[in-house]
Amino acid sequence: MSRIAKSAKSILGTFLENGFAVIPEFIGRSQAAALVSESERILDKYFVESEQQKLVSNAEKLGDHSITHKDEVTMTFHPNSFDKNGRLLVSKHRALHSIGMKLHNLFEPFKKATFSEDVKHVLQRLQYGNPIVFESSVVYKAPGAKELAMHQDESYYRTDPPGSGLAFWIALDDATEDNGCLQIYPGSHKAAFLPRVILEVDNKLKIIEENNTYKNIEESKFVKLPVEMGSLILVDGFLLHKSGPNDTDNLRRAYMFHLFDKSKSNWMKNNYVKQGDVYSFNSVY
Questions:
Q1: Preceding amide of 161 cis, omega within 30
Q2: Distance separating alpha carbons of residues 134 and 112, to the nearest angstrom
Q3: CATH number of the domain bearing residue 53
Q4: How far apart are CA 258 and CA 280, in angstroms?
Q5: Over the chain, what is the mean pLDDT?
Q6: Closest of 11, 237, 231, 31 to residue 124, by C-alpha
């Protein structure tokens, strides 16, 4: 039995009670470095200077600094990384916010990380009957990046019944309190918040939001989770979490993929995330 398989045996109780679990050294530092290298190769291949004005146009029309290549990748950039003419104010690697959304389906290093035997051991221990990965991305927290507000992942997608959503968050750099490590509210997955729902209505995205849902949440309830490169943090889809600002001069990167258990719930048809050019639904087993 592998070391990860042994670790997976002990996580169920912790995960059910707290809504998260940490497995150090889930992947090796060399594999983490390979995922960073692959994400930068993808960025170099798909982001070209001629598309910078397209970013600005998208932002002006849609409030969205992103580019999607048909059947390929979506890149999202920090809005303050460009001037009004679409020229980068920083390097593209530091302007990047995320690159996705189906890395697990397109690129071998991410396929290997997503569908490994260790991932299967963890999911089996968490009693997932038919886990379906529907989104994967590398998230870049650039120097100077601000805090990511508290949220629950399942407020952005819906299954029927809800509750089988899960995120794998794998550190590709050491995540520290200074560079914006994850912060979680232990046990909050047991409460019903879910203030924001993004649905597709008549081929248009509709955001349904209950104002001030989190207004009584005490910041002191959040626990910082600094982890070393290669560590895994499992996050229940209902768990309240956020991340702090990056006050260092270095990037903080993570590979994330989200899934749900098809043996326990169905994907709602009016979710904005659908199988197609941008997203890919793939079974882990």
A1: yes
A2: 16
A3: 2.60.120.620
A4: 11
A5: 88
A6: 11
